[in-house]
Design goal:
mainly beta, Immunoglobulin-like
């Protein structure tokens, strides 16, 4: 079906307007005068959007023409000058394209017009790109048109000049219609891939001085991809522009939805794709490709405290399975097309590494049982910057977290305190600490007194260095933890446990009796004394303004008990569910 080329009436409407360039030299010259000229084009003439009839095209807002003007002596007074659609007439029967140009001398000129503006020019040779990636809309970008050169008077402020010329479509349009009930893919798709037996897209060089001369093609390809965020379904039309020429042979195509693609369909085509014509095609969409296995990862909770930028996935062998940018759909897929044996991944744990502005954190996801040619969804959490719930620890003690004999002296040599619990809490250190398997840990303050003199032996624990923060970053963080308290006193006198919290960048084993380096919570008396390894009903949330890579968190137990005539005591802080995240 042919799009009829029509006669365009161009009228130059001249008004004064600044913006034309002025050449300045050492010798003063009269400034170049400028005018704004406009082409008045009837609205029923050839334009660049498609009408409901599927044949007629129309100009539309944002259209720009490229115009050349050659004087009677053969000199160009302007080349590839842009004329933009400015407005329509009150009765909507005319459209006006305008541009600011230098005043033209009285003469007879030859005018040449092209749409859209070419990506590059060499004299009257205009080069366009008919892209291999198209939108499926008839938006005019690929509807290249060149006018028959026409003679006319100068465009000046003296009056309006009418020009009559014929615009010729240079490309061929394919109108693909998906019949109702023929989208066998089963759902909306967003990508159509077509492979032709000959090259159909590429760079196009056209001589605007002679639109009847055959264009020159280069950088060509036989594959066209149509992509649309809105997608396509039965009843929709898809427009594809191709280079004019004869297509004879097998054409194959397939579609892709959000994740999966269809089978490939092939049909024979013998067609002379003439410039300015439309080829209508009724295209049935093939069924979905069945040999597809996928694991879709989705985020349940983000415990980091800030959005991640992306995450990497590694299988149980350390093979990198993909990098995924954060998206609004919250669906990140590792997919396999073709023959697949899911048994190789059954019940394996994959490592997930998240990257954010301040941190790099990781977690693991067990894939469970997988089935061939099936889609599986696995949910995961973005982990905390740091966390410890002590669920993996065995029962342990450094021997000084629970002295039961009231008047017996607890001699404790701090130089021999454990600086690492390799099988318990790697990288941690502490003194007067112990733990119960899978439950929590406790920190003991020992008080000893006699004849009115007393001594406090504080307990302390320091975490392993927090290495999830990026090097050079100082981040504001929120630290949350559960705790409880209890005491056992002997003799005369009483007191309550105290809790001190802070942080340090010191390494190695730190003496429990020494003060914390950076105190966030000063010695705080705990009067609720129902704590135990299985009861940490109290909670605390504090903010640290500037935490850096390698920082350790510190807790210290003390007591409010003062000197007495005689009596000892143990004062415990139980600690559990430590969580650290970026503070907004």
């Amino acid at each position: 079906m042919k799009i009829l080329a029509k006669i365009i009436s161009l009228a130059a409407l001249a008004v004064s307007m600044a913006g034309c360039s002025v050449e300045i030299t050492d010798t003063p010259q009269r400034p170049v005068e400028c005018v704004e000229v406009g082409f008045s084009i009837p609205t029923d003439d050839t334009r660049t959007t498609i009408a409901p009839d599927g044949i007629t095209t129309h100009w539309t807002s944002g259209d720009k023409l490229a115009v050349w003007a050659k004087s009677g002596s053969g000199d160009f007074v302007f080349e590839n000058t842009v004329f933009s659609l400015r407005h329509f007439s009150e009765t909507y029967d005319k459209a006006f394209f305008t541009a600011s140009i230098a005043e033209m001398e009285v003469d007879e000129y030859t005018y040449m017009l092209a749409y859209p503006r070419p990506k590059q020019v060499n004299g009257t040779l205009a080069t366009y790109t008919l892209s291999a990636s198209q939108s499926g809309k008839y938006d005019g970008i690929h509807d290249i048109m060149v006018a028959e050169p026409v003679k006319g008077d100068a465009l000046t402020s003296a009056g309006m000049v009418s020009l009559n010329t014929t615009m010729r479509h240079q490309m061929h349009a394919i109108k693909i219609t998906i019949p109702e009930g023929r989208n066998l893919y089963g759902s909306r798709f967003y990508r159509l891939e077509i492979t032709f037996p000959v090259d159909v897209v590429g760079d196009v060089m056209i001589d605007v001085s002679d639109p009847n001369e055959a264009p020159v093609y280069s950088n060509t390809s036989n594959v066209v991809t149509v992509e649309s965020a809105e997608g396509f379904d039965a009843g929709d039309d898809i427009w594809v522009f191709v280079l004019p020429g004869t297509v004879e042979g097998d054409v194959s195509y397939r579609v892709r939805g959000e994740m999966r693609h269809s089978n490939v369909a092939t049909y024979g085509l013998a067609r002379d794709m003439k410039a300015g014509h439309v080829t209508p095609i009724r295209m049935a969409i093939p069924e979905i490709y069945p040999y597809y296995t996928a694991v879709h990862f989705s985020i349940d909770q983000n415990n980091l405290g800030e959005d991640f930028n992306y995450f990497d996935v590694y299988d149980a062998n350390g093979t990198h399975m993909g990098k995924f940018e954060r998206n609004a759909s919250n669906k990140y897929s590792v997919a396999y097309e073709g023959e697949f044996d899911a048994d190789q991944y059954d019940n394996t744990s994959w490592r997930i590494v998240f990257d954010s502005e301040h941190a790099t954190v990781e977690t693991s996801v067990n894939l469970g049982n997988l089935t061939d040619y099936t889609e599986h969804t696995r949910w995961m959490n973005v982990p905390y910057l740091f966390s410890e719930d002590f669920s993996a620890i065995p029962t342990f003690s450094d021997g000084h977290d629970n002295v039961a004999t009231g008047f017996k002296s607890d001699t404790y040599n701090e130089s021999k305190m454990l600086d690492s619990y390799a099988s318990v809490l790697a990288g941690w250190s502490g003194g007067r600490i112990g733990g119960s398997a899978g439950q929590s840990i406790r920190i003991c303050c020992r008080f000893e007194s006699g004849l009115g003199a007393g001594a406090h032996y504080k307990g302390r624990v320091d975490t392993a260095p927090i290495t999830t923060l990026k090097s050079g970053v100082n981040a504001k963080v929120k630290v949350m933890f559960d705790y409880g308290a209890d005491r056992a006193e002997y003799g005369i006198g009483s007191g309550n446990p105290t809790l001190t919290f802070g942080y340090t960048t010191d390494t190695g084993a730190l003496a429990p009796s020494g003060d914390l380096s950076n105190i966030v919570v000063s010695a705080s008396e705990v009067t609720s004394l129902s704590g135990s390894f299985t009861s940490t009903s109290l909670s605390r949330s504090v903010t640290i303004d500037g935490l850096s890579n390698g920082t350790r968190l510190s807790w210290q137990s003390g007591t409010t008990r003062g000197n007495s005539f005689a009596g000892n005591g143990n004062y415990w802080i139980y600690l559990d569910n430590i969580k650290v995240q970026i503070a907004q």
